[in-house]
Design goal:
Number of strands: 6
Number of helices: 5
Strand content: 15-25%
CATH superfamily of the largest domain: NAD(P)-binding Rossmann-like Domain
Order of helices and strands: HEEHEHEHEEH
CATH architecture of the largest domain: 3-Layer(aba) Sandwich
CATH topology of the largest domain: Rossmann fold
Oligomer: single chain
Helix content: 25-40%
Shape: globular
Radius of gyration: 18 Å
Length: about 160
Amino acid sequence: RRFAALGFAVRGFARTERHIEGVVMFAGNDQLAAFADGLDIAVSVLPLTPDTKGIINADFLARMSAGAFVINGGRGPQIVDDDLLAALDSGHIGGAALDVFAVEPLPQDHRYWTHRSVRVWPHVAAQTNADTAADQVAAAIISMMDGQVPANMVDWSRGY
């Protein structure tokens, strides 16, 4: 919404349909290609599920605008490394900033370390605030003691 307020054309992709003011939303695998068509910047913060593993692949990257940029702060296996490297080598993708990787820590001999168009971040897309974390843990314990389901409980049927 903040980027939309600044005049950017913003798209969002989700597993299920939803409405976000100022964002053109796409939902489900059948709308993934339309979502990727002409993207200038793709920012992935998706959870890792069977549906999101390899979601940023050769087809997705080819649909993006020439010179586009990829940012992954979600989960490493969402990107097919060989496909991203090929798109970067060809110049179709202009750059990538990666905070997560399929193998962590990222092996010292991985091409991401030396590729001129890749910025490797140290897996710190978000920092944990100790006070906030402690409050969340305490609230979860209290919920369970009261026989309730804690907030933010993982729904294994959804994959996150």
